[in-house]
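# nightly structure sweep
# worker-07 picked up a monomer target from the shared queue
# config: single-sequence mode, recycle default, output format = structure tokens
# input follows
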Amino acid sequence: MYKFGQKYWHLVDRDNNGSLDFDEFKDVWVGLAAVHSEANLQMFDAYKDRIMDAEEIKALRAQSK
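# output follows
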């Protein structure tokens, strides 16, 4: 994780002040959530219609237990 942080710090610390302010922190978490959501959609969207129906959501939940 440390090496990952070093590699991508320049993308996170947008104002290049060497610290992580609250807006930068929020943006990182929003970005991670978006990537995670897209990955789940690609894995569990059986009909490839970019909509998670009830059965697809059940499959997602069953996998995450």
